[in-house]
Design a protein that fits this description.
Blueprint: E1 54-58, E2 64-68, E3 74-75, H1 92-100, E4 116-120, E5 126-130, E6 136-137, E7 148-149, E8 154-156, E9 164-166, E10 175-177, E11 187-190, E12 196-200, E13 205-207, E14 239-242, E15 248-252, E16 257-259, H2 263-268, E17 289-290, E18 293-294, H3 306-316, H4 318-323, H5 338-351, H6 360-367, H7 379-420, H8 435-443, H9 445-448, H10 453-493, H11 507-513, H12 518-521, H13 525-575, H14 584-592, H15 596-600, H16 607-635, H17 646-659, H18 664-702, H19 711-718, H20 722-731, H21 734-763, H22 765-796, H23 801-812
Parallel strand pairs: 4-7
Antiparallel strand pairs: 1-2, 2-3, 4-5, 5-6, 8-9, 10-11, 11-12, 12-13, 14-15, 15-16, 17-18
């Protein structure tokens, strides 16, 4: 965008941001990668037949082209005065780029050439361009009009269906070259092609002619447009135009100067400067004025930097400091710390009226006239202290502005609250209020304190939203109050010795009873139902809670009875009246004889489970005392044998057992357990010995040992068998022979018993034979009788007896 300032400026296509130096700025192009021809500005040729407002330039390849200084329209053919001029052969996309670059691209309509022109792209491809519509295409258009050649280098657009685009010639930044022969304030520059032009940084005026002391100054090439809002009708010598996007700008045909701002307003506000809000500025630019302070320049007209400017101001204000030298008499700098000096320097800034809007250049000029400015010895420390002071002042100003804004907002809401408190609750904006109320609100100074119309509308909308919310809160509070009153009525009717309502009372019954109650009538049907549901749920919860308490009480009683039963049962077990290994069915008769049994046991109590619990508890204690009991016996040198008695063990180990909290009952139980184990082990050993003897006798039986066998013969036969060896390992070499003799005695006794039974059976044999014969005759008679009976049955059924006999014979076979 062109630089801002009063007076004449550099053309838009030659401007570039700098440090007070004038240079050039390239316009945005459709494709940055395309080669851009360089525009070399020349003067308008008044006597050369060139149309007014047109200038000649040279591209990079040396070819000449012409451009319109006002509209930035470019063409390859020379615009002749007096002839209708065609529009620029620049594609539409490029025209938008020209407008975006800050150069107005609008003129009164001119005659156009309704034909297609041929052009060549950078890669050699041919494309076609319509001079009237700005349309470009790669295919040859179907038209009878001839296609003319247009020597413009296109760049295909990446955003408009691959249409080629044409770049606008731009200027290359010039090289600065001072000249002492120039008028004061003018500097000499050169373009990259070597052409000399002149620029005045103070007025931002640029020209090709040399402004010498003897020559006359001519009008500048162009005034860069300043982008400001149009407020009034332009002056008579200026004409108003619009860019393609609707923006207004102003052009002076006499000076060829172009502006965005209204020249009439610039004349009225010649002492003011454009707003720099939102942009970072540089105080060192010679053309910028901060607080009426202009940056000083050196002998060659170049602007000084901040440090050099400070020296300039110090020298300039030397006499003023001399008149104020007495202020330093009361200040002892040698005894002050750096913090105190910085604090004093900040107080000087505040005293001299330096605010958060002040700039360093302005501050140096004002404060350098005060001797206290030098309490900080170096420029860097002064500048750093100023930056800190400026930051703190900015923060204070921001806080102050916020507080003032907040106070104005609060007062604005107070005005609305005061005047609208009696308005209809359904009002949602000032339009819904009475005209008298609106007039009082708008005439109140606190209302006018908020000057921004949009902010005021937003606050009014917020007020009505908040007002509606507060009214809803009041309605909700009243509703809750009425619901609480109805709830109190329901609680009253559900309490006492004879309550009217209970948890099973229906909503219809409640409505019938409370039909005329004020608390009931104050609510509508849904709210009544809500209160009833809450009350009923609470009543049911109370009933459930009472039942749970009753159940817990019964459980506590049952636990107490079970505890008493366990205590009594443990006493019986420890006293020995009930054995620890006794079964419940053997113990139950003993328990029923006790008086406490009926009082501690009811129908729901399972005494078998309680008995099992007591036994398990005792067994658990025995398991805990088992290892300790064994260690105590081992320390005392005692052991439990089959012939050992418990009393002998108890007398020797009683102190140690009592010290380890092992009562006599548990000690005796552990002693009995060990003796039981010994008994089981003994029986097991006896069974093993008996099995070995049985195996040995079975071996002798298999060898057919009888009364005639001798031990020496049998020993040779069985000595290698495992049964013999097991018997020898059990009792030595004598045990097999002893067992052999026992086996012979057993066989003799057994044979004798067999002979005796034989003799007894022979004596009874004759009697048995007689009985058998008698039984046989009786059986034959019965068979004949049965056969006879069968034949009778068959004859009755119509069956041949002979056939029946045959069937019987077959059945017997």
């Amino acid at each position: 965008m062109a630089g801002r300032g009063r007076g004449r400026t550099v053309p838009a296509w030659m401007q570039k941001g700098g440090d007070g130096d004038s240079s050039t700025m390239s316009l945005p192009t459709a494709a940055p990668s395309a080669p851009n021809p360089s525009r070399e500005p020349v003067r308008g040729m008044d006597g050369d037949g060139l149309a007014p407002g047109w200038a000649e330039a040279v591209a990079h390849d040396g070819r000449k082209y012409w451009y319109n200084i006002t509209t930035q329209v470019t063409r390859w053919d020379k615009p002749v005065a007096g002839l209708p001029q065609p529009v620029s052969a620049v594609p539409q996309s490029q025209a938008a780029s020209v407008a975006d670059a800050g150069v107005p691209n609008s003129e009164p309509p001119q005659q156009t050439i309704p034909e297609w022109k041929e052009a060549t792209a950078g890669d050699g491809r041919v494309y076609y361009y319509h001079a009237q519509t700005g349309e470009t295409r790669w295919e040859k258009p179907e038209t009878e009009a001839p296609v003319s050649s247009l020597p413009i280098t296109p760049v295909p657009s990446t955003t408009a269906a691959a249409k080629p685009a044409v770049t606008v010639p731009v200027e290359v930044p010039p090289q600065k070259a001072p000249d002492s022969d120039l008028l004061e304030g003018w500097l000499e520059y050169k373009t990259p092609e070597g052409r000399v032009y002149y620029h005045n940084p103070s007025t931002r005026e640029t020209r090709w002619e040399r402004p010498s002391k003897s020559g006359s100054e001519k009008a500048p090439l162009q005034k860069a447009p300043q982008k400001h809002r149009v407020a009034e009708k332009p002056a008579a010598e200026w004409k108003e135009y619009e860019t393609p996007d609707g923006k207004k700008y102003y052009h002076n045909p006499q000076t060829n100067e172009t502006k965005w701002t209204n020249p009439a307003l610039d004349d009225e506000k010649s002492s003011s400067k454009p707003s720099d809000r939102g942009r970072k500025t540089d105080d060192r630019k010679g053309s910028r004025r901060r607080g009426g302070v202009t940056r000083p320049r050196d002998a060659k007209g170049r602007p000084l930097n901040d440090k050099a400017a400070e020296l300039h101001f110090i020298t300039e204000n030397e006499k003023k400091r001399a008149r104020k030298a007495d202020v330093m008499e009361s200040i002892d700098l040698s005894s002050m710390t750096d913090i105190e000096k910085t604090k004093l320097f900040k107080s000087v800034l505040e005293e001299l009226g330096v605010t958060h809007e002040s700039r360093w250049l302005e501050t140096m000029k004002i404060c350098s006239a005060d001797p206290r400015y030098f309490v900080l010895s170096s420029y860097g420390r002064r500048h750093n202290a100023f930056a800190i002071y400026l930051s703190q002042a900015t923060k204070r100003a921001k806080v102050k502005r916020i507080l003032e804004t907040r106070r104005s907002y609060d007062e604005f809401f107070e005005v609305l609250e005061e005047h609208l408190k009696n308005e209809n609750n359904k009002a949602r904006s000032l339009e819904d209020c009475s005209s008298a109320t609106v007039r009082m609100v708008e005439e109140d100074p606190r209302y006018k304190a908020v000057s921004d119309h949009h902010e005021r509308r937003s606050m009014i909308r917020s007020f009505f939203i908040d007002r509606e919310r507060r009214m809803r809160d009041v309605h909700r509070a009243k509703r809750r109050e009425n619901m609480g009153a109805l709830r109190a009525v329901l609680d009253k009717h559900s309490s006492g010795e004879t309550p009217t309502f209970h948890e099973r009372t229906s909503f219809r019954q409640v409505c019938d009873v409370l039909a005329k109650d004020p608390a009931f009538l104050a609510l509508d049907e849904p709210d009544r139902s809500v209160v009833y549901d809450e009350w009923q749920n609470e009543q049911r919860a109370k009933v459930m809670e009472a039942r749970a308490k009753e159940k817990e009480r019964k459980r506590a009683q049952e636990r107490a009875k079970r505890g008493a039963f366990r205590e009594k049962l443990e006493e019986l077990i420890m006293s020995g009246e009930i054995e620890l290994t006794a079964r419940y069915k053997d113990v139950l008769p003993i328990l029923k004889e006790k008086k406490w049994f009926a009082s501690t046991v009811d129908q729901e109590t399972k005494t078998s489970d309680l008995y099992r619990d007591v036994i398990d508890a005792i067994e658990e204690k025995l398991a805990r005392h088992k290892d300790k009991f064994r260690s105590i016996l081992k320390d005392a040198g005692l052991s439990v044998e089959l012939g050992t008695t418990f009393l002998s063990i108890w007398e020797k180990t009683q102190p140690a057992l009592e010290e380890n909290k092992i009562s006599k009952f548990y000690a005796e139980a552990l002693f009995s357990r060990q003796q039981e184990k010994l008994t089981v082990a003994k029986k097991k050993e006896e069974k093993r010995v008996q099995r070995i003897k049985e195996d040995y006798w079975d071996l002798l039986r298999r060898k057919e040992v009888n009364e005639k066998s001798s031990w020496h013969e049998i020993k040779v036969v069985v000595s290698g068998r495992s049964a013999y060896k097991d018997l020898v390992a059990l009792g030595g070499e004598e045990l097999p022979e002893k067992s052999f003799n026992e086996y012979l005695a057993y066989r003799s006794e057994k044979e004798e018993r067999r002979r005796k039974r034989h003799r007894e059976s022979e004596g009874n044999k004759s009697e048995v034979n007689g009985d058998v014969k008698k039984k046989k005759v009786d059986g034959d008679d019965k068979l004949d009788e049965l056969q006879k009976r069968k034949n009778e049955i068959l004859s009755k059924l119509g069956t041949d007896p002979a056939a029946g006999a045959e069937m019987r014979d077959e059945g017997e076979v």
